Q: What sequence folds into this?
């Protein structure tokens, strides 16, 4: 008699609220569908960007839906640093992270959750190496519904949502940043492709000032800050208008100190 193979578990991609590191929080059930919260509550095995943040998120989940396993008993493994900080999508032939060992519980029949500190894992966040490993092992990958800041910002920008690119962080150093801004602007104006990028919140004001000063007057710049939080801000206007606004009220730039997405285009 042939013994049937033990069913494998799945890899669930778990979105989290966009309020990581913020002073204010939205109720969890206001930003995540109940079905997502229930799926999270049933898990007990995680691959995480940060274990401490994951435990804090699970405590918020427990306030809405009882956990099948207590926070203290959850199995949480952090992504390896090379996949976490640098990613592994470099030039062709570059070494890639082999994350298959992290999915051993799934091969034993347990569902595994992949989670980052904010938003959807593997989208402007670490995790793609684990998703790739799941596909290589023949595991089912299930993305759960929840906030994705890039898509929310793009929808609210008034820019081209049919043709766009996310380019990560811009350089910090002034000359290199100016060159990159000019490159992205030329690309956007030539092709119609919206360019999306992000910055660490405490540098948002400096980046906004640089964009307002260095973009051509008619280039449209959108900034979406604090999305899904109690007081979100979304403004989209030509660079000349941004310059006028910031010249009249320089402190306005400092108001954009929450997690933000920047977008520029025609």
A:
């Amino acid at each position: 008699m042939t013994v049937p193979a033990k069913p494998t578990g799945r890899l669930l991609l778990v979105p989290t609220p966009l309020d990581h590191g913020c002073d204010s929080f939205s109720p969890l059930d206001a930003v995540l569908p109940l079905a997502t919260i229930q799926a999270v509550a049933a898990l007990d095995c995680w691959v995480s960007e940060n274990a401490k943040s994951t435990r804090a998120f699970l405590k918020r989940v427990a306030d809405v839906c009882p956990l099948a396993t207590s926070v203290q008993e959850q199995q949480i493994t952090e992504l390896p640093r090379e996949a976490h900080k640098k990613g592994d999508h470099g030039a062709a032939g570059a070494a890639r992270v082999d994350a298959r060992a992290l999915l051993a519980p799934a091969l034993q029949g347990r569902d595994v959750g992949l989670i980052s500190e904010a938003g959807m894992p593997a989208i402007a966040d670490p995790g793609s190496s684990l998703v790739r490993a799941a596909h290589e092992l023949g595991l089912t990958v299930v993305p759960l519904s929840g906030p994705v800041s890039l898509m929310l910002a793009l929808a609210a920008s008034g820019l081209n949502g049919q043709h766009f690119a996310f380019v990560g962080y811009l350089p910090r150093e002034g000359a290199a940043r100016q060159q990159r801004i000019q490159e992205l602007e030329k690309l956007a104006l030539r092709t119609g492709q919206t360019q999306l990028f992000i910055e660490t919140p405490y540098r948002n004001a400096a980046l906004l000032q640089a964009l307002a000063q260095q973009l051509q007057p008619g280039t449209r710049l959108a900034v979406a800050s604090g999305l899904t939080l109690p007081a979100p801000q979304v403004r989209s206007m030509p660079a000349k208008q941004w310059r006028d606004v910031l010249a009249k009220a320089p402190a306005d730039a400092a108001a954009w100190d929450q997690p933000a997405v920047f977008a520029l285009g025609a």
Q: What stands out?
A: The two ends are 67 Å apart (CA to CA). Residues 174-191 form the longest helix (18 residues).
